[in-house]
Please model this.
Amino acid sequence: MTACCQMTNGQTNAAATATERETRTYRPAVDVIETADSLRLVADVPGARAESIDVRVEDGVLTIRAEVPRRDVQEGVQWRLREYGVGAWERSFRLGDDVDSSRIEAACRDGVLTLTLPKAAHARPRKIEVRAN
Amino acid sequence: MLTRRVFSPVAVARPFAIDREIDRLFSGFFADAPAWFSQRGAAAFPALNAWEDEQALHIEAELPGFAMSDIEITLNGRELTIAGSRNENPAESATFHRRERPQGRFSRTLTLNTDIDTDKVAATLELGVLRIGLPKAEAAKPRRIQVRTA
Model:
């Protein structure tokens, strides 16, 4: 079910629509990329400023939430296309033991949130010295 | 595809990762290959909102991570095309555990319902949100006709 379906289903009065728009939460698309010593989580959160993004780890669950202010559209306009809704972005991920959750870094630019999750020491590749006998 | 869903509950614990349960649930939608071309109807990228007032048409699209130089907006008569590309290439040694964000080229064409004053078209891109203002041509604007009493 897409956001646009949700927005048009059963919402016939303007007041209800306005309230829904303020409280609605969407699930951002993410890429998760693993390198030798970290995981990188990249999330599309268009409309969100860095200062309105909350990243937290609680009980091994990483949650990203980005508040997005309503974008001004004047009353009385004629809508021609409504393919997406505007609201907060939120998504949670359960972290494995392999992530060092105390050292997660976050940056946001042009509506893209990037988290770097360093691997715990035991999860990093180690080179084993081979001794000649 | 830019898929948006209301927040889903956290998945059960998995080693090393990153809500595998949801991953499996949605794996049918998130094929590995960029899927911009195979999408149908409303799922086309980018999703668009458009509205109209007396003076202008307004079109908005979410294009996170794009620079204005990645986007090409052309107006040919009443045909408006929004095209561009996003190509983020991580290091070759990297492994994708999840790849939902669209990459590659996209293009969408809309047929507008009115003539536009092409000299006054303006676009802004802020926080990954593209907004295009398309002022209507003078002849297309509503005019108040003075009704005189005979």
Summary: Helices of chain B lie at 20-26. Chain B has one helix and eight strands.
